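Researcher: Please predict.
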Amino acid sequence: MILPCETAVKSVIPAIKALIAKELIEEHGFKQDHVAELLGISQSAVSKYTRKVRGQAVKIDKIEEIQPQIDNMITMLMERSRERKEFLGLFCQTCLMVRKKGIMCQFCQKSEPTIKSEGCAFCLSLNHI
């Protein structure tokens, strides 16, 4: 059995990190190595996010509801003044918001063909943390 969180690790989480990396570089003028340090990933991963090689399985940049979440996470990373627990909570809330939009359903179905997307609705009914 493939858990929805396993699918999110491969699709939603990289999309969130890619959006954060892109905004830190394009909007705030950060260098890739600094973004890598802030996100706890390699510079090579940041490069792949910015070149759209990674983090593009789901498109989240047009989901208006998550932009305030992304902005808050960016502020936390830039200020380094917030606790890790607070950042992680916000990241998880953002992931849940994306999952509730149903854009991950196609990946769950590919991972486990016995899932019928119209009958699952697990992520669509999730409550925020």
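Model: The mean pLDDT is 88.
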